[in-house]
Amino acid sequence: MKDKSGHTRRIILGKVAVGGGAPVSIQSMTNTLTTDVTSTLYQIHALEAAGCDIVRVSIPDMESLEALPAIKKDTKIPLVADIHFDYRLAVGSIEAGADGVRINPGNIGSRQKVGEVARAAIEHDIPIRVGVNLGSIRRGILERFPGDHVSALVESAREHVEMLEDMGVEAIKVSLKSSDVLETIEINRRFAAISDRPLHIGVTEAGTLFSGLIRSSVGIGTLLLEGIGDTIRISLSDDPVKEVYAGQCLLESLNIRKQGVRVIACPTCARAQIDVPKIAAEIEEALAGEKIHLKVAVMGCIVNGPGEARDADIGIAGISDGSQLFVHGKFTRRIKTEEVVSTVLDEVRRETGR
Questions:
Q1: Where do the H-state alpha helices sit in 54-99?
Q2: Residue range 184-200, pLDDT digits in tens
Q3: pTM for the whole thing?
């Protein structure tokens, strides 16, 4: 993996550093009505508990803006206001205490209106995230790059960043997304080659849980392995908390973040002595929000089971009358099948001192 140290500039979003070699952060976005403060806060707190680093809320109207101070007051992680079309909502969100704003200069309006947002961001010392997508690219750019979405998106982002820089904005984060995985990879590669602005990466409209995880893992994972990307969101048409768990799993799988429990499990066959899918799913669900970095192995039989279980911090291998339990590579005892999940969870609690 390419060394990211110093590759991009560093900005500060609330208390979270983004870019400049800071740890890759995980983001998500609420899907509640922002006007429903109770529901929105409930979801934000669930995201916080899951390990989300930065949360974004949509501010589509004045009623949502009026709800923002109450939401911000009870939110511990950085809160980013997502704005489209109306620059006054962006300015109002900044004045209401948002830690950052996400705008698409292409749909905010005139340069003067973008300038008002820039002025407020400078005054309150918060970063602006420049979001770019095909739907908001100037007709002139599209005409310059007919049929070339990648070049059009890169040029649009470059123009928007340059405009904000001319207005005196220093803290800028850039997001270039496409629903096409290969376009997303190429867009970010090309922009990273011409700019040192920190990048928020993700595959937009990635899809439902199954397809969305695959597309996001390919797109985001490829870029992260190339040293591109400072903060990520795995966009899913599902519960936002699952986006956070997926982001943690992706970063842990790439050895970018040493946090969270990795549950490995065999694909099962006729030799399996225990219900591996059921047991592994129960353990994974129970440990989804765990911060300690551990490897748990759930193996169905004694062919490869003991070897894999010994290699894990905690492992089980199915046998005819239950399972063998391994802790830090050592066989400790045999356990009954109905005790497997509770036993593994007890061992994890011992590791965490709880």
A1: 62-73, 87-95
A2: 999 999 999 999 999 99
A3: 0.89
